Amino acid sequence: MLVRRRVAITGLGLVTPLGNSTATTWRALMAGRSGIAPIRGFDAGGYPVRIAAEVKDFEPRTQGAHHKLLKYAVRHAAFALSAAAEAIDDAGVGPCAETANRWGCVAGSGMMGVAFDELAQFQRRFASGGKLAAHALFDPATPAPDPIAYARNQANAGLALLVQRFGIRGYASSVHTACASGGQAIGQAMRLIRRGGADFVLAGGFDSMINPVGLAGFCMLGALSTDNDMPARASRPFDRSRNGFVLGEGAGFLVLEEWQAARRRGARIYAELAGDGNSLSSYRITDSHPSGDGPIQAMRWALADAGARPSEVGYINAHGTSTLMNDRSECAAVRSVFGPHAARVKVSSTKSLMGHLVSGAGAVEAAVCALAIHHSQLPVSANLDQPDPQCDLNFVREPAASCRVGIAMSNSFGFGGSNSCLIFRNPEDAAG
């Protein structure tokens, strides 16, 4: 009988609007400190939304010979390199000549590959009249566009940089499922280890859409909160007064490792990554079905994959975007999956403090679940003053809660209907 290999989380790395490391991000979450503020990266004065959750005072961790990789990295790829370096340092293990072929990398990468500044520069030089001037583009007398920009802006450029930076020689894949990308990347990495395709995987997600094009798109969808005068309170998941999400940016990476190998080397294990469930709703490109269909399937399959019962789950890190339909749909899904236990399982949305990191959200929130298990603490769902009657779950409200967590769940639901659910188990309960 083939024994399914189990998966340990042994390293964490974060770059978020709350801090440029795992420790600073976790402290801010526990303190209920918001990372949402007026936009500093560009002049958003003409936009209906002028606030976001930006990464602040960022200095890349890439040093020495690897520093040159940054010229090939757009902003969110630089976040990824730093978060991944922290995760590998935290795990105390990395690829070497003997193990590089047994390391994999799976990354949920950003929705926008081309930096706005590069788009604007190209337009000014080669399409200033609104029409592409091909003769100027290929005229030897005209300075050519930066060819490295083309390499930087490939959809898998971040993945390539990660593989090169850390010398990973095994399986590599990039996931593009919008807001579900980070969660699905981690689930794919877990399955890779389970089936013996790798012994270690660097897995996570990264994104940055806080630029004139990204902000404009979400503004036109009407998805963002317009509470510019109260940025710290603008993201209010599950609150009766919520009016949209707050755009964020950042990266989260985990080192996943075959369980017995981690035990043999005496690694610190934050949690077991125990289950993964996915579905595709295809109800609307921006909404889940009001009944929770789609998310229901993802949660049920994740629980079944982990061999866990709903009554065993102590904490749910909700997708919880702070939009009207998403929050109601997710709560309906939780009630359907958990039945009577829905009134007891603790729920919070960390997007209330760090905004929505889009493709990076699922990976960062997976790390939060691992930390919640490790520290026996639960982050708050901030700004929840008057819960929507249709969002009647057991939310963690201020202050942060202290309690042992046996099993945690993380939900990520993306545009286009992609739904991801991950299950984490306390290592004390994962005997063997």
Outline the fold blueprint.
Blueprint: E1 7-15, H1 22-31, E2 37-38, E3 51-52, H2 75-91, E4 103-108, H3 116-126, H4 134-137, H5 147-152, H6 157-166, E5 172-175, H7 181-194, E6 200-208, H8 212-221, E7 249-258, H9 259-264, E8 271-280, H10 295-306, E9 313-317, H11 324-338, E10 346-348, H12 351-354, H13 361-375, E11 377-378, E12 394-395, E13 401-402, E14 407-413, E15 418-425
Parallel strand pairs: 4-5, 4-6, 9-10, 9-14, 10-12
Antiparallel strand pairs: 1-7, 1-8, 2-3, 6-7, 8-15, 11-13, 14-15
Give me the number of helical elements.
13
What is the approximate shape? globular
| Cα-based radius of gyration, to the nearest Å | 21 Å
Please trace the helix and strand order, writing H or E for each element.
EHEEHEHHHHEHEHEHEHEHEHHEEEEE
Largest pleated sheet: 11 strands, mixed
Which percent range describes the beta-strand content?
A: 15-25%
Helical percentage? 25-40%
CATH topology of the largest domain: Peroxisomal Thiolase, Chain A, domain 1
Low-pLDDT runs: none
N-to-C CA distance: 18 Å
SS elements, strand count: 15
The CATH class of the largest domain is identified as Alpha Beta
Q: Strands across the major sheet, in which order? A: 5-4-6-7-1-8-15-14-9-10-12
Mean pLDDT, all residues: 93
Number of domains: 2
Structural class: alpha/beta
Which homologous superfamily in CATH is the superfamily of the largest domain? Thiolase/Chalcone synthase
CATH architecture level-2 label of the largest domain: 3-Layer(aba) Sandwich
